[in-house]
Amino acid sequence: MNAPLPLTVTREAAGQGSEAVARATNEVAGTLARRLATETQGEVLFGDGDRGRYATDASIYQVLPVGVFVPRTSEDARIALDICRDLKVPVVPRGGGTSQCGQTVGAGLVIDFSKHVRNVVEVDATARTVTVEPGIVLDHLNAHLKKLALWYPVDVSTAAQATLGGMAGNNSCGSRSIAYGNMVHNVLGAEAWTSDGALHRFGRFEDSSGAARVLGERVRDMARSLAPEIEKRWPKVLRRVGGYNLDVFHNQNERPYTRDGSVNLAHLLVGSEGTLALTKSLTLQLSELPRAKVLGVVNFPTFYKAMDSAQHIVKLGGDGTLTAVELVDRTMIELSLQNPAFAPTVQAALIGKPDAVLLVEFAGADKAQLLRKLTELEQLMGDLGLPKSVVLMPDEAPQKALWEVRKAGLNIMMSLKGDGKPVSFIEDCAVPLEHLAEYTDELTQVFRKHGTRGTWYAHASVGTLHVRPILDMRQQGATRMRQIAEEASALVRKYKGAYSGEHGDGLCRGEWIRWQFGPKIDEAFGEIKRLFDPADLLSPRRMVNPPRMDDTRLMRFPPSYRVIPLTPALDWTAWDVQNDPATEKTTAPGTGGDPAHGFAKAVEMCNNNGHCRKFDAGTMCPSYRVTRDEQHLTRGRANTLRLALSGQIGSDGITSQEVRDALDLCVSCKGCKRDCPTGVDMARMKIEFLQADRARHGHSLRDKLVGRLPDYAALASRFSGLLNLRNRIPLLARLGESMAGFSARRSLPEWQQRHFFNDPPKGATRDEVLAAARPVVLFVDTFNGYFESPNARAAFDVLKAAGYTVHIAAKEKPDGKHLCCGRTYLSSGMVAEAKAKAGELLAAMKPFVDRGIAIVGLEPSCLLTLRDEMTTMGFGDAARALAGQSLLFEEFLARELKAGRLEEFRAKLKPMEGPLLVHGHCHQNAFDAVSPVLEVLKLVPGAQPQLIETSCCGMAGSFGYEAKHYDVSMQMAELSLLPALRAAPDATVVADGTSCRHQIADGAQRQALHAAVLLARQLT
Length: 1020
Ligand SMILES: Cc1cc2nc3c(=O)[nH]c(=O)nc-3n(C[C@H](O)[C@H](O)[C@H](O)COP(=O)(O)OP(=O)(O)OC[C@H]3O[C@@H](n4cnc5c(N)ncnc54)[C@H](O)[C@@H]3O)c2cc1C
Ligand code: SF4
Ligand code: SF4
What we know:
Blueprint: H1 18-24, H2 26-39, E1 43-45, H3 48-53, E2 67-70, H4 74-87, E3 91-94, E4 109-112, E5 120-124, E6 129-132, H5 138-146, E7 150-151, H6 164-170, H7 177-180, E8 187-193, E9 199-202, H8 210-225, H9 227-233, H10 266-269, E10 278-285, E11 287-288, E12 292-300, H11 303-313, E13 322-329, H12 330-338, H13 343-347, E14 356-364, H14 367-383, E15 390-393, H15 396-407, H16 409-414, E16 421-422, H17 436-449, E17 456-459, E18 464-467, E19 470-471, H18 477-494, H19 506-509, H20 512-532, H21 599-603, H22 622-627, H23 634-645, H24 657-664, H25 671-675, H26 682-697, H27 701-707, H28 709-718, H29 720-723, H30 730-740, H31 766-771, E20 775-779, H32 782-787, H33 789-801, E21 805-808, H34 823-826, H35 831-850, E22 855-857, H36 860-867, H37 876-885, E23 886-888, H38 889-898, H39 903-907, E24 916-919, H40 922-926, H41 931-937, E25 945-947, H42 966-975, H43 977-982, E26 988-991, H44 994-1004, H45 1011-1017
Helix pairs in contact: 2-4, 8-20, 11-17, 17-18, 23-24, 33-45, 35-37, 38-41
The structure holds flavin-adenine dinucleotide (FAD) and iron/sulfur cluster (2 copies).
């Protein structure tokens, strides 16, 4: 038999890049792709962009796969396995790709189960079991189970993106493992293919038959013969996930793997990281959703005391009600306090300035019993010398908010700018609780010795504290990593812990398996691998015959990593910094040595954690929600840009076709700017791409029509009758589609002969507003000015009725044109023109800004350009000052309301009846500017505005008008916005975005109002 293709095709072996891997395996890859395309229904992704995007996961590693396969059904996956076996191409199964140790990167065929193979096969509510396909995400499963008051309780922090197949692969563990155990404790059965193509049912050994039984018997025999060795070498902690679970036949875990002490063969697959079999389905044990939860936050004066107390606190769990004891240390507390979204929540949990806090949760059916547990906790802390150290949280809302902060812990840390990053390689070592204090203390000394430090957090209840020392992998990071790993391992051995206690082995910890279990057990692991996978087809060279953890040829940022010099159009210098690993202090902006002046470093902030794959509330990432494609995901885009900027894709850098394809469906909603934990701002990055791309390839007619709209709008409005024919004569619409790419299925905004700019209301002069007691400047944008003038007039009327002296922003020396923020130019790759517009606006607004007068706008994407992109155009303090004064209409009113200046105005509003729905523009969401809309609407007597939980409406400026994007645009609208509107046919709908209103009109045939119009209508 020929050996399979090498799994770890290193950068060196591959000849410095993706092309070489393709060459090395060209013929086989070609045949593989052809056969997959003809013999399956799945998606076959063999382009450089796709391979690059699947070359990484949430680890430090990067290995290009031969290709990527996205099966539509599990049958597709089986056929792919057969084809790979024929062609001797390794298979690397993958779920959400959130592994931290490189489990899902490898030079085989990556099979991504997460897109289609994600059905719930069967639920048995009485037996409390569920059978699922491997690609289903934990949160989605739990949403499905909620109506049955059941849940799957292995609550990993990545619950919104981790798949059950991946969780089983890694033997994942949740925050509440002290109560529910790890993945292995909650899996009842698995159907899986071994690499010979045979499908096996793995379940209770006693009941098993056929090949599965034979496999089980062989492993049982090994376990029997190695019993003394297992007893001697096996870590006796709950959180041991390294190696194969040979101990199913001779349990060493603190918690037996099964409730009745029987052996379950499916547990051999749990934690095998895709190296033994390809999972087709999993049968899982469910738990009752706890009816009540209470939380006690224990504040500690020293970190050591917190660690030392954990062993005593867990003893409160004798009755089974203790579900979590989670650590948050001082650094994490401080980082959270700096985040405006988290600060109030954290502050409410603190007593003074603790060095660490432990979140102690009790859950169960009887709230009174749980409250007694909190009293016991308080008494215990008194006995331990810390009276009055517990903040009690008996109610769910504050608990939930605090858990969100804890879950965001790692990501908060990862937002550190500069090349030094917290690196995961010893972050989940587990030690017995009685040694936790000494272990953490000594490891901290190790970090210090190596000139770095780490932040500690997470699972104190089970001795698995997360910590990531800060290392610069482009410099001495790999060497330091090895040294620290060696010294950490000595501590783990000293305290009889487990080196891999949560995140698995992958490329990072495979070599530590022999160290942990000794040569005999390691050889048995090799035998298990050969037994299940004699062809060495499934993720080879991981737990058996692994690479060195510090092999820089397998890394995403090896010392040879280089960025192609580039001069960005916008200012990215805030990212162009370095940090000191010991103090975490960052250098001044622009000093980081980035040849792309900070743009590359901003792109590199993506650490692949996969948070952008979530589907819950929040905006990020609409194009992924619609397509479920890695390519159309913030992470996929950031990876594509990183590869392009570092010359690893194509020769055209940022203007390569791969980047163009990846950014094509990005609607620039800025959802990632707010929701991405490390602040990847893809909307801003897309501006760089558009600028570079159009500079190289020129602007299309559509670009010019969209971009230059503010320039020709005055002239065009004079021919409104003629131009609006396009919306009435289908032939003209089709002509427009073929010439400029605007979808014939859409109406375009209607031109008005009489509009706000040629027929404005009489506002105050510049001098009048500068002298006024209650001044405001109304900045009217192109869209509300030319196409929806009633909105601008309504805003003017409302501001006047509220007692303000309103000046309408205009050029100091009128030239027939209006002031413009530059938004349309930015979205069409015309940054120079946008800067010119922004410069004009800045100059015109300066006197008002200097006087502290608010500049108020109506269209979120325009007004918020003043707060966002305009500050990156090189205007320095002037732009920052304008940003500080720029407010959306409702933000201004909400501010005034809070200051008590709107009481008279409130009295002028007549009541309204009926439901009132509000859709937030995604830029409003990104800038937390939606709640002011709700606050202001509540001024109307009887108004009870309800926010629709939506992502982007799908229109996104000109995106939805484009013929090639029409379908995706409508799918985005159908995600939640349009169904919510259809469910409330009588509701008044408020939407501040001009394109959102258009989408609502097209998709739901309803006329949405700007909030200003609703307020103006209610004026008596
Ligand atoms: C910020 C962050 C926080 C995290 N928090 C936690 C935590 O709280 N607890 C925890 O345990 N982990 C945590 N992890 C690690 C990771 O999220 C979990 O291990 C998660 O369960 C992996 O799920 P996934 O779908 O991304 O799997 P992937 O990473 O895609 O795959 C995991 C393993 O499963 C294998 N696999 C996937 N599908 C199949 C299949 N069909 N057949 C066979 N093998 C398959 C893969 O080959 C791989 O070896 C965290 C990671 C990050 C980045
Ligand atoms: S883009 Fe942000 S959320 Fe998505 S994987 Fe990267 S860092 Fe995580
Ligand atoms: S800007 Fe919006 S569409 Fe684009 S990557 Fe970010 S969240 Fe996704």
